[in-house]
From TrEMBL:
Organism: Agelaius phoeniceus (Red-winged blackbird)
Pfam families hit by this protein: Pept_tRNA_hydro
UniProt keywords, alphabetically: Hydrolase, RNA-binding, tRNA-binding
Keyword Cell cycle: no
PANTHER family reported in the protein's UniProt record: PEPTIDYL-TRNA HYDROLASE
CDD domains assigned to the protein according to its UniProt record, in alphabetical order: PTH (cd00462)
GO molecular function: peptidyl-tRNA hydrolase activity; tRNA binding
Listed Gene3D superfamilies: Peptidyl-tRNA hydrolase (3.40.50.1470)
Domain of life of the source: Eukaryota
Protein name per Swiss-Prot or TrEMBL: PTH hydrolase
InterPro entries associated with the record: Pept_tRNA_hydro, Pept_tRNA_hydro_sf
Length: 134
């Protein structure tokens, strides 16, 4: 589960994916387990939920390069594109509205496009978090 955003710019609308992962880590009781993984240039926490092993990932890059971290982590943890969930902001959704998208185009989102390019696939499931237009 990759929370897309601009690392170092916490609290901004475009880093909502990372904020969601912080909340998920707290709910899964692994919030103290974040560690820097230099192999994929990301903060990583491992968790278990409903019998599934999860890799929580917050890339330490700007949004348009998030895919490099996601692809590296996929290789390290032997994950295919279909195993990956991207959590990211969506300007076209009202603030707080949530939608799931199964694969397809990036719809103009640079972080998602970066992941599609780096993984050479668009099969990732996306959790789109509405941030509304300014």
């Amino acid at each position: 589960v990759a929370g897309l955003g601009n690392y170092g710019l916490r609290g901004t609308r475009h880093s909502v994916g990372m904020e969601v992962l912080d909340r998920l880590a707290r709910q899964l009781a692994v919030a103290e387990g974040w560690r820097v993984d230099k192999r994929c240039c990301a903060d990583v926490a491992l968790a278990t939920a409903h019998g599934l092993e999860l890799v929580l990932l917050k890339p330490r890059r700007f949004m348009n390069l998030n895919g490099l971290s996601v692809a590296s982590a996929a290789e390290i943890y032997s994950l295919g594109p279909g195993d990956i969930y991207l959590v990211h902001d969506d300007l076209d959704k009202a603030l707080g509205k949530v939608a799931i998208k199964l694969g397809g185009s990036a719809r103009g989102h640079n972080g998602v496009q970066s992941c599609i390019s780096a993984l050479q696939s668009n099969e990732m499931t996306r959790l789109r978090i509405g941030i509304g237009r300014p």
